[in-house]
Amino acid sequence: MKFNRTNLETTGGMQIAPMIDIVFLLLIFFIVTWSYARFETELDVQVPVAKEGEASNRQVGEIVINVRASGEVVLNGMVITKDELLEKVSKIAVGYKDVAVILRGDRDTKYSDIIGVVDTCRSVGIWNVAFATQQPDGE
To answer: What is the helix (H) or strand (E) element at residue 66, kind and residue range?
Structure first.
């Protein structure tokens, strides 16, 4: 009986092109999300501590407004006046009815400065305003 020998050395090597595509897509994703995330947190703003604060799920298109201790309002990394804030927020409110606003006020900010930003948001019809806090140390 004669057996035919088949080529047992078939190489089905690993395809590297799809892996490179996935790595580049992940790289692009992280670069894009990093560029948006760096505007959200102002390093000069120390939000107050709250024991009962809870982490919320982030929403697409939410606005993060930072209020420094001096009362300056920072939006997208730029210091803006109250009139500029009203103009920008009103344009957003026209296009997106239920837009969420996260207000990051410094713990040393005057209450009147925070209320001024809340009033500006309410005047254009934005009702979904949340206040950012941080967990106490050790939790």
So the answer is: strand 63-67
